[in-house]
UniProtKB/TrEMBL annotation:
Natural source organism: Phytophthora palmivora
Gene3D superfamilies: Ribonuclease H-like superfamily/Ribonuclease H
Domain of life: Eukaryota
MF GO annotations: nucleic acid binding
Name of the featured protein: Uncharacterized protein
Length: 105
């Protein structure tokens, strides 16, 4: 901490959320802009597309947790489940994966 104050500098470390291409969101200025963008996008898509998007997002987050924040992961293919009409509503995250990610903080 003292090294950040040497020479008249005021350097501090602060927590910042992850900034990876897999997790980025639109750069929207305020809450109203975010709500408007989400509503517009939501209304323009059919439910099948939304199901696929949310399942993929769940799988990305689960996979990122499993590889300790790395982007070196592959997503399982869900096309077979989709064709059979058996896509799950949500995906299960194993307790060990969750605990490992949370306890590393």
């Amino acid at each position: 901490m003292a090294a950040g104050l040497e020479g008249g500098w005021n350097i501090r470390l602060i927590f910042q959320p992850p900034n990876s291409p897999d997790m980025n969101v639109l750069d929207l200025v305020g809450t109203d802009d975010i709500i408007r963008a989400v509503l517009d996008a939501f209304q323009s898509m059919n439910s099948e597309t939304l199901d696929t998007i949310f399942l993929t997002l769940h799988d990305c987050i689960r996979s990122i947790l499993a590889v300790n924040g790395s982007n070196q992961y592959t997503l399982p293919h869900m096309d077979k489940l989709k064709r059979a009409g058996t896509l799950p509503v949500s995906l299960h995250c194993e307790r060990s994966v969750y605990d490992s990610a949370v306890l590393k903080r």
